């Protein structure tokens, strides 16, 4: 019996013992195609020798230095790489150990920004339903994932509220144009600012491309420009959560680069270190930095392991490999192949309602009736069944339930490593179709 507290107490997951590229090897000897990089994390696949060497060399040279006293070479170099050329005006980086910690830092920094400006009333944050920003209490309070919030609802901060997600498959009205849909969502956000009090809102938080909670939902054209305008009109910051969709996952370094907007604060994590070390961070614009520099002069926040030298060395090598091997071009090229194959196989599938995504970040939504978009009953646990069948077939994908409203709806996420080739895509799609068909055969 395991002594480790697993996600499911009564379940003992199989043990993964090694990985090479897209393939994981289990203790039983079975091979699994990791078609989702875990949770869209393993952007370089497994067993990359360059990254392993960088980790080992840094650990031998300097394993730890407390940032209250010292900085480190890999942390400085990683920050320099990420803000080289001032992308979108982002000029500073702050490194932590996870995406949840990154969002906590973003929320705290937004609050301190307003304090430094003398705007003490700005304590409220607005986010979106069907969103996820992390599992720590502050990040969870910002999240709109009803299932994950439920056990902790009574201890979550109350200075958070949510508006509708930009989710056209489920929420755009029949015959409503993109422009009209965007305008309706912008008006809803404006109404929420007015309800709360425009001078009380600190920031609006959103995933640029929604990750696991709703399944790779891309924004309607013009949406973020309209949202940015509402925030600017009332002096609130825009925090973009690119923990899952950023750092190349959608084909550009930052997903917002395809939306014509820039965040004031951006959260990054999964693709930053590719899973080789726990690392996340926030990127910050001069506007935010200026308020701190000309105010107290210090960000009142920190962690024992922030800017950890070994973690930063791993992430630095991951980012250098992405650059050296031009992997963003591969994400766009092979991402188009993945899209084509998914649409070809599932576009008319009787139990697939939607195929959506961008780059190497795709999801298929499984429905009981594709005509009226009716989901399967939650108790059937369709997404979990698909995961189990897929694993038995030798495929790792990322399943989620509650796609529609936090309770109803099922989807699976496909997010291969950036190193994937066209030859890798067919077996992924073939095995996914078999897993879905086996599941539907059971529940129907």
How would you characterize this protein structure?
The chain has 444 residues and is an alpha/beta fold. The protein has 15 helices and 15 strands. A hairpin with a 2-residue loop joins strand 11 and strand 12. Helix 2 runs antiparallel to helix 12 and helix 14 crosses helix 15.
List its salient traits:
444 residues; alpha/beta; 7-stranded mixed β-sheet; 4-stranded mixed β-sheet; 15 helices
Tally of helical segments: 15
Query: Mean pLDDT across all residues, rounded?
Result: 97
What would you report as the Rg, rounded to the nearest angstrom? 21 Å
Tell me the structural class.
Answer: alpha/beta
Q: How many angstroms separate the termini?
A: 35 Å
Percent in strands: 15-25%
Characterize the largest beta sheet: strand count, sense, and whether it forms a barrel: 7 strands, mixed
Give, in order, the helices and strands: EEEHHHEHEHHEHHEHEEHEHHHEEHEEEH
What general form does the structure show?
A: globular
Number of strands: 15
Tell me roughly what share of residues is in helical segments. 25-40%
Q: For the largest beta sheet, what order do the strands appear in spatially?
A: 4-10-9-8-7-5-6
| Uncertain segments | none
């Amino acid at each position: 019996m395991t002594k480790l507290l697993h996600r499911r107490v009564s379940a003992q997951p199989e043990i993964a013992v090694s990985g090479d590229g897209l393939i994981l090897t289990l203790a039983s000897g079975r091979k699994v195609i990791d078609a989702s990089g875990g949770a869209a994390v393993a952007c370089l696949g497994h067993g990359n020798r360059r990254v392993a060497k960088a980790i080992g060399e840094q650990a031998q040279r300097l394993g730890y230095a407390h940032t209250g006293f010292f900085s480190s070479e890999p942390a400085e170099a990683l920050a320099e790489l990420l803000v080289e050329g001032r992308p979108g005006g982002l000029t500073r980086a702050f490194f932590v150990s996870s995406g949840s910690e990154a969002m906590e830092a973003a929320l705290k920094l937004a609050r301190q920004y307003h304090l430094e400006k003398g705007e003490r009333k700005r304590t409220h944050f607005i986010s979106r339903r069907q969103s996820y920003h992390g599992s720590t209490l502050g990040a969870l309070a910002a999240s709109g994932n009803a299932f994950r919030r439920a056990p902790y609802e009574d201890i979550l901060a109350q200075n958070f509220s949510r508006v509708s997600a930009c989710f056209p498959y489920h929420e755009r009205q029949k015959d409503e144009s993109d422009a009209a849909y965007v305008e309706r969502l912008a008006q809803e956000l404006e109404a929420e600012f007015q309800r709360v009090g425009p001078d009380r809102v600190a920031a609006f938080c959103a995933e640029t491309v929604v990750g696991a909670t709703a399944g790779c939902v891309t924004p309607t054209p013009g949406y973020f420009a309209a949202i940015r305008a509402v925030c600017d009109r009332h002096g609130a910051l825009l925090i973009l959560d690119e923990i899952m969709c950023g750092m190349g996952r959608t084909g550009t370094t930052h997903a917002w680069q395809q939306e014509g907007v820039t965040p004031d604060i951006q959260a990054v994590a999964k693709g930053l270190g590719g899973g080789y070390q726990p690392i996340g961070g926030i990127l910050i614009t001069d506007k935010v930095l200026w308020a701190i520099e000309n105010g107290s002069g210090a960000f009142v926040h920190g962690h024992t392991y922030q800017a950890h030298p070994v973690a930063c060395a791993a992430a630095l090598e991951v980012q250098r490999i992405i650059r050296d091997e031009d992997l963003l071009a591969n994400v766009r090229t092979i991402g188009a192949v993945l899209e084509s194959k998914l649409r070809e196989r599932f576009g008319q599938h009787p139990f697939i309602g939607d195929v959506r995504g961008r780059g190497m970040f795709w999801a298929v939504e499984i429905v009981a009736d594709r005509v009226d978009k009716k989901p399967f009953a939650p108790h059937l646990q369709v997404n979990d069944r698909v995961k189990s069948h897929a694993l038995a077939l030798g495929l790792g994908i990322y399943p989620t339930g509650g796609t529609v409203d936090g309770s109803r709806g099922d989807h699976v996420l496909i997010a291969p490593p950036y190193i994937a080739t066209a030859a890798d895509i067919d077996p992924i799609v073939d095995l996914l179709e078999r897993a879905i068909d086996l599941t539907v055969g059971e529940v129907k």
